[in-house]
Here is the input.
Amino acid sequence: MKATLIFIVGLCALNCLAETNDSVLRRTGGIVIPKDNGKRLAIVNSCGASTNAVMQLIKGSENLFHIPVKNLAAQPSDATPYKAAKSYKNNEIPAVIYIYSGEKDGPILSVHVDDAIATINVTPLRSTTAEIEADRLSKELYRAYGLILGAYYSAKMPSVLSPAYSVGQIDNIRIKMFSPLHISSIMHTARMLDLPILRPTTYAAACRMGWAPPPTNDIQRVIWNETRQIPTNPIKIEFDPAKGK
Here is the structure.
């Protein structure tokens, strides 16, 4: 008797879920993703630094911002870090983070905002354990990512972009997150660089924003036609000479 009751309750729950999904589908047209233009922010690891730190940023960018990041294999180069980084830029790669092994007393993170290029020197980040080195590099990758995409240092709200001018201060950063203002700046700059933001949304919302693909079923076709139809009673705006507007 108990097993039968559980079965009936479960069946009712599944039916309710199916009806809810059907209702959502009729109202929204389902979920779609913007077209990928193929452009990428690239990370170039020229010195075999921690791949875990690199993958953390790649996954973080895709999960938080829906911006894909490309992990490029480095080519041998005798150029300066900035020039080596710039050599990877092209129409498909508008932004580059270049990891290299430089002088111990050299700069750790150098950011060229106008070129959307950042270089990270891993030598000052060396430690007695691989875990500490990977954590330091991971923080610097997040900081480089934010800075070349329009974010900025902020001491008012805890974030990965808290000011840090030494390895010790980098170690004191406890979170690998951006503030809401940082996120807004990053999204805005990503659009300016024409980086794809592959955020899933409803077909109805995509139609309203103007980038929805052609409909593939009757539900989407109804939403498509309703969104694109000319209003039957449009708002009229007339100039009033008396008011001057």
